TrEMBL record, chain A:
Domain of life according to the entry: Eukaryota
UniProt keyword Cytoplasm present: yes
Pfam family, one: Sec15_C
Annotated ranges, domain Exocyst complex subunit EXOC6/Sec15 C-terminal: 415-761
Primary role: Component of the exocyst complex involved in the docking of exocytic vesicles with fusion sites on the plasma membrane during regulated or polarized secretion. Involved in polarized cell growth and organ morphogenesis. During cytokinesis, involved in cell plate initiation, cell plate maturation and formation of new primary cell wall.
Protein's name in the database: Exocyst complex component
GO CC, alphabetical: cytosol; exocyst
Similarity remark: Belongs to the SEC15 family.
Automatic annotation (TrEMBL), chain B:
Name recorded for this polypeptide: Ras-related protein RABA1f
GO annotation terms (biological process): vesicle-mediated transport
Keywords (A to Z) from UniProt: GTP-binding, Lipoprotein, Membrane, Nucleotide-binding, Prenylation
Upper classification of the organism: Eukaryota, Viridiplantae, Streptophyta, Embryophyta, Tracheophyta
InterPro entries: P-loop_NTPase (IPR027417), Rab_GTPases_membrane_traffic (IPR050209), Small_GTP-bd (IPR005225), Small_GTPase (IPR001806)
Domain of life: Eukaryota
Entry keyword GTP-binding: yes
A single MF term (Gene Ontology): GTPase activity
Organism: Glycine max (Soybean)
Amino acid sequence: MLSSKPPRRKVVPANGDDSADKLDQLLLSSAISNNEDLGPFIRKAFTSGKPETLHHHLRHFARSKESEIEEVCKAHYQDFILAVDDLRSLLSDVDSLKSSLSDSNSRLQHVARPLLSSLDAFVETRNVSKNVNLAIDSVRTCVKLMEVCTRANRHLADDNFYMALKCVDAIEREYLDQTASSTLRRMLEKKIPEIRSYIERKVNKEFGDWLVEIRVVSRNLGQLAIGQASAARQREEDLRIKQRQAEEQSRLSVRDCIYALEEEDEDGIIAGGIGEDGGGAAGFDLTSLCRAYHIHQTLGLEDRFKQYYFENRKLQLTSDFQVSSMTPFLESHQTFFAQIAGFFVVEDRVLRAGGGLISKMEVENLWDIAVSKMCSVLEDQFSRMQTANHLLLIKDYVSLLGVTLRRYGYPIDALLDVLSKHRDKYHELLLSDCRKLIAEAVAADKFEQMLMKKEYEYSMNVLSFQIQTSDIIPAFPYVAPFSSTVPDCCRIVRSFIEDSVSFMSYGGQLEFYEVVKKYLDRLLSEVLDEALVKLINTSINGVSQAMQMAANMAVLERACDFFFRHAAQLSGVPLRMVERSRRNFPLRKARDAAEEMLSGLLKAKVDGFMTLIENVNWMGDEAPQSGNEYVNEVIIYLEILVSTAQQILPSQVLKRVLQEVFAHISEKIVGTLVSDSVKRFNVNAITGIEVDIRLLESFADNQASLFSDGDVDVLRASLAGSKQLINLLLSNHPENFLNPVIRERSYNTLDHKKVVIVSEKLRDPSDRLFGTFGSRGARQNPKRKSLDTLIKRLRDVS
Amino acid sequence: MGAYRADDDYDYLFKVVLIGDSGVGKSNLLSRFTRNEFSLESKSTIGVEFATRSIRVDDKVVKAQIWDTAGQERYRAITSAYYRGAVGALLVYDVTRHVTFENVERWLKELRDHTDANIVVMLVGNKADLRHLRAVSTEDARTFAERENTFFMETSALESLNVENAFTEVLTQIYHVVSKKALEIGDDPAALPKGQTINVGSRDDVSAVKKSGCCSA
C-alpha cells in the first residue's frame, strides 16, 4: 500500500523520539503476537512521516528470511524430488481407477433402470393405497358414526332416552373430532344440543304427566292405607269384644264355656305394606319419575331437577290443603286427609327408592308444613262444629291417619295434641246431646212398670245393663220394677260411655279411663241427676208415681255400678281394679228427692186420716179398747201401701220411707195434744192414745219379714216422740222428768215447752167429783201433786 | 279478502269486561289476546285497564274494547261505571285455586245486577297448563256453566291455549245476537249507524244461541 502522495517531512524533538519509538515497538510486537489488525500501526507510520524507516526495516527482515528459506530449500531438495515423483505415479493410478469407476457406473445404470421403474410404480401405488386407506378409514368412521346416530334415533323413537343420551355422548366424545367432513361436524354440533333439549323436554313432559297421575293415585293410596289401618283396628276391636264376652260369661256364671283364641287369617293382610313391590293393586309406579331423574343426572342437570321436583311437589301439597267451603268438611274431610296421607306414602317411597332425589330433611320439611296445616284446619273445623258425632267422625279418621303415617315414620304428636285439646269440647257436646235425649226420655215416662213379653226384651232392657235382681230368667210376661225411664236413660248413658271411649281410644293417650270416668261422673251427677230431680219435683202426680220413681232410683243405683264397670272394660282396665275403688252414688240428689217426694205424699195422705183424731173423746169415761178411728184408718192404708210397694221398692228404700211416715205420725199425735184444738183431756183419753201407738208398733213388727236385716227397732224408734210423752203422762211419778239421768234415758225426745203445755191440760176425774163437795177438805192426789211440781219447775225454767 | 281498512274503521264496537278474583290471570288473558304478550310477574292490576283489538266476523269488522279490573276488594267502588254498556263478559277463575271457582257465583250475581240480562257470559278456567296442580275439575265447571246458562272454556294465557278462541267465541256470539236483532229491525240503514254500540235483544235470543252454541275445552 504505497501512497502516491509525496511524503511530508516533519522534525521531531530529539528528546521525545527515543521513548516514543520504544513504546510503539512494544505495542506493535504485542499486536503481532495477538494476531491483531496492523492497519492502525501502518496508518500511524505514514501519518507520522517515517515510511522510509519502515521500508528499510521490512527489506532487512525480508532478506534475512529469504536466507533462511534458501537454507531450508537446499536441505530438502532431494525429498522434494522424491515427492514429485510419487505424485506423478499416483496421478496415473487415479486415472486408471476413474476409468474403472465410470465403467462400473455405466453397467450399474444399465442394470438398475428396470428396477427404478418398478420402484416408481411401487411408490405411486403405495400413495394411492394410503389415500384409499385414509378414505376407507374416514368412511368407516362415518359408517360407525352413522350407526351410532341410527341407534340414537332408534332409541329416541323408542323413548329410550338414557340409551339415546349414551349414544349422543359417545358421538360427542369419540367421533366429533375424528369426523373429516366439516359439513357433518357442523351438523353434529348443531344437533347434539338439540337432541339433549328434546330429551329434556320429553322427560319433563313425562314427569308432568306423572305429577298429574300421582295426585289421583295418592288419594286412592291414602284411602287404601287408612282403610287398612281401620281394618286392623277393627280386628283388634273384635278380639277385645270376644275377650270381654268370655270374661262376662265367666263372671255371670250363666254357662261354662272354654274360650279359645282363633288363629287370625294372615292371607288377608298385604305383605310388606302399601306401595311395596308385589302389592298388586296397592302398588304405584315410580318408573316415570326415576327415569326422569336418571335422565337429568345423565344430562348433568341433577340439582336443577331435584329442585324442580321438590318445588312442584310442595305446590301440589299446598294445593291439597285447599278445603272447599262449598262442601261441608264432614263430607270432604276423608278426601282431604286421604290425599295428604297418600302424598306422604309416595314421598316415603321416593325417599327410599328414588336414589337421593329427595332428602329426608326435605320430606320432614314437607311433613312439618302438612302437619301445621292439618292442625290449623282441624282447629278451625272443630271450633265450628256443634255436633259431637261430627267431632267423633273427624277424630276417628284423624287417628287412623295418624296410625297410618306413623307406620311410615312420620311424627304425629301435633295431630294428637289437637285431638286432646278438643276432648273437652267433644264431651261438652256429648253432654249437651245427652241432656236433650235424657229430657226426652224422662218426659216420655208414664210412671208405669214395664211389661216384657219375650226374653229378648228382658235381655235388652235388663240383662244388658245388669240391673236384674236374680240370675234366674223370670217367667214371661214379666213385669219389671222400673218404668221406661230406666232402660232409656241406661241406653243413653251407655252410648255416652261408648262415644267417650271412642273419642279417647287411639288418641295417643293410653290410660284414658280416668278421663272417661270423670266425664261419666259429670253426665250422671250433673245431667241425669238434674233431669231426674226436675222430673220428680215437677211431674209427680200421686203416691203411685212417686213410688215408681223411688223404685226407678233404686234400679238406677245398680245401673250406675254397671256404667263404671262398662267404662272400665271398654277402656281396657281390669274389673277388679275398678271394684276395689268404691265411689259415691252419683244420683244421690234424685234418690233423696224421690224418697222425699214419696214420703211427703204419704205424709199428706196420712194427714188426711190423722184429721180423724179430732173425733177422739178427750174426756171420755172409758178408754177405747181397740184404738181410735184415725189410727185404724192409717194402719189400713199403710198395709195396702206396703203390699203394693214391696213389689217394686227395695226393702231399704221402703224402710226409710216408713221411718219418715212413722215419725210424721208421731209428730202429728204430739202436735194434736199441744194444739189449741184440744183444751183438756183425762187419763182415759191418754190410755186410748197409748193403745193407738201400740197398734202402730204391732204393724211395724209385722213388717219384719220385709227387711233382710230384721231391724224392726228402727220403725219403733220413729214413734219415740209420742210414746215418751204418753208414758210421761201415764207415769205415777211425772216429776222424774226433772231428773237428768231419767230424762235422758226415758224422755230424751221431749221438749220442755211442750211438756208444760200438755201437762197442764191433764184433768184428774176426781176434780169434778170433788167439785160437788167444795166444802169438804179432801186428801190431795199424790200424782196430781207430782204433776203440779213438774209444771211449776218447768215454768220456772222457762 | 276484502280491501284494507284503517284501524279505527269498524262495523261494530263491543265492550267486554273481564271479572274474577285477584290473581286468576285476567290481565295476562288481556295482554295475550291484544298484544300476544305474557308476563310472569304477578303484579296486581290497579283500578281499571282496557285494550282493544279488532277481529273479523262474517266479513264484518268487530272491534273489541276489553276492560280489565282488579279483583281485590278495595277497587270495588268502580263497579257500576265499569259494567256500564258491557255486552260481553269473561268470568275468570284459576283452576289451581278452588276458592276462585267458589267465588264465581258471587261475581256472576254482581255482573247480572249491573248489566243487561242479555249479556254474553263465558266462564273461563285459566292456568289449565298447570295440570299437576289442578283443583277444579273440568266436569264441575262445565256443570256449573250449564246450570248458569253460560259458555265455558279452559285456557292457558301462558301457553296461549284457547285464549284466542275464548275471546272470538264471545265476540262472535255477541255479533250473532246483534245480527239477529238487526234482522228483526229490518234492513233500514238508519237503525244501524256505523261506530255505535248496539244493545242486544231479548234474553230468549241469547238463551237460544247459547244452548245451540255451547262449547267446551
